[in-house]
Amino acid sequence: MAAISPSVAAIRVAVRRALAELPADGPVLVACSGGADSLALAAAAAFVAPRSGRLAGLVTVDHGLQTGSAERAEAVARWAEQAGLSPVEVVRVEVAGRPGGPEAAAREARYQALVEAAGRHRAAALLTGHTRDDQAETVLLALARGAGPRGLAGMPVRRDLGGVPLVRPLLEISREQTRAACAALRLTPWQDPHNLDPAYARSRVRAQLVPALVETLGPGVVDNLARTARLVAADNAVLDELAGDALLAARHPDGGLATKTLADLAGAVRGRVLRAWAHELGSPPAALSHRHIAALDALVTAWRGQGAAYLPGGLRVVRQADRLLPAPD
Question: How far apart are CA 182 and CA 167, in angstroms?
């Protein structure tokens, strides 16, 4: 019996652990572009899932942004069927006309398509091939834009996406390992030209910043950045739990939030309480920034009779005596 490549074995172990934490019902769907990361993930799922008593399928999204994208998506689907994955689906999406830049628009279209596919197939989870290198890049991008602890926590191993668990089994796996696994399995990954396009910030981080950091600080820097994300995520979980309890305690019996209770909170907890409350009011999470939370905080800690704090979604919050309240339309 031939020895298994260490990279193949590591990825299979990561997938097995991820599947063990999922509900028993429904298949898992691998989101696969055909790149090395998602291809290695799909191959591991095809091997591990049947041995775990579970179906594993694959969804590949054709964004229609590059010549030959439809043919490439069909090739990924044919490979998936040959590998024993089922169900297998190619989803074509329209990126043009969506808000944000091209990268954000493509991501929104892709995730919407994945959620819809998961619903059609009653999937227990969606699996994506984000690696330790992707996590390190995410931390660097968060640092560059001045993100707080939530941004520095990077990508969670698991999160809810439109009611479907989105799971990232490979966050402890390097990009080098996924490439080695593909080579060992004689798979030919697709090289996405967007990953080398300097028009995209992540591409510049990948091609220029990370190599410079490795050269300056040593090869351990990528793992250290990913470890930082894990440590910050653990701290965030505790702070979020404290904030959940504090939000309940801060609710005023006449509606809104009690400013005295808020003022007595530690700043890190109060900021989370105000953010969670803004979400409740209907402010889109992606649009809610530090300056919006700072404006709410000023109504609590630096009250001088100022006017309303404006939040994304056309919302306004005012202070009336000892309460924060959403202003009427």
Answer: 21
pLDDT at 24 over 90: no
pTM beyond 0.85: yes
* Residue 274 φ/ψ, nearest 5 degrees: -65, -40
